[in-house]
Amino acid sequence: MSRASLEKEPHEVAAMFDAVAARYDRTNTVLSFGRDRAWRRATRAALALRTGERCLDLAAGTGVSTEELARSGALVVGLDLSLGMLAVGRKVRPAVGLLAGDALALPFADGALDAVTISFGLRNISDTAAALREMARVTRPGGRLVVCEFSAPVNTAFRRVYLGYLMRALPAVARRVSSNPDAYVYLAESIRAWPDQAGLGALMAGSGWADVTWRNLTGGIVALHHATRG
Ligand SMILES: C[S@@+](CC[C@H](N)C(=O)[O-])C[C@H]1O[C@@H](n2cnc3c(N)ncnc32)[C@H](O)[C@@H]1O
């Protein structure tokens, strides 16, 4: 695959994830120094799912995020565009419900869900605002959204070190552990190009979501944005 471009069509994004699927879970844990597990637990806590609630985990990939959410006792289903990621997920997590589909045309009726969440996926969807509006469409009034996504470290000195890691060390590490290192160049560049906490908050507020708040994890490397369907 050629060097990652940030302007990707949905089928190109899916193909990129097909190519990293086999080692996706392990690569994440290595590149994040194991922090990914804590970020997933924090996402589950922020959603505060109750037994029997219906929740969609969008851009679920191999279902690693979906599996954590299902511990809540809610009815959680994951959805993803990459058949390769879904195939790995179905093999290693047979108990997790996973569907093929596009975040921009969800196979759910208006207001069908109590909660929608997306972990490390919103950045990869070609039209962020359209995806947020589609999530709002399928969520009932009063239902909630939690977005777990890479963001901007708040401390300036830490941000400098982190950006150095992202642009230099991360692709080098990925070359050793991933089945498609170019995808991790795309990862680094897409994190750098992504809006900061306030920027994403404003995008959510303009795309059908109310009461938008956020909290930083690991100094702002990741942010959890919470909103309710007005
Ligand atoms: C970085 S993975 C995140 C997987 C998982 N949620 C996690 O926390 O590790 C991003 C996923 O977004 C999916 N994706 C990108 N565009 C999509 C779209 N339009 N609809 C559904 N999934 C999409 C990709 O196929 C990929 O599996």
List strands and helices in order, with pairings:
Layout: H1 10-20, H2 24-31, H3 35-47, E1 54-58, H4 64-70, E2 75-80, H5 83-92, E3 97-100, E4 113-119, H6 128-138, E5 139-150, H7 156-177, H8 182-193, H9 197-205, E6 209-217, E7 222-229
Parallel strand pairs: 1-2, 1-4, 2-3, 4-5
Antiparallel strand pairs: 5-7, 6-7
The chain binds S-adenosylmethionine.
**Overall geometry:** globular
Number of strands: 7
Distance N to C terminus: 42 Å
Which parts are unreliable, with pLDDT below 50 for 5 consecutive residues or more?
Answer: 1-5
- Strand order, largest beta sheet: 3-2-1-4-5-7-6
Q: Count of helices? A: 9
Helix content: 40-55%
Helix vs. strand class? alpha/beta
Radius of gyration, taken over Cα atoms and rounded to an integer in Å: 16 Å
Question: Which ligands appear in the coordinates?
Answer: S-adenosylmethionine
SSE pattern, N- to C-terminal: HHHEHEHEEHEHHHEE
The whole-number mean of residue pLDDT values reads 92
Range of strand content: 15-25%
Main sheet specs: 7 strands, mixed
Report what the structure shows:
There is one protein chain. With 230 residues, this protein is α/β, with parallel strands linked by helices. 45% of the residues lie in helices and 22% in strands. Strands 3-2-1-4-5-7-6 form a seven-stranded mixed beta sheet, with helices on both faces. Mean pLDDT is 92; it is low at 1-5. S-adenosylmethionine (SAM) binds at residues 10, 13-14, 17, 59-61, 64-65, 80-82, 85, 102-104, 119-121, 124-125.
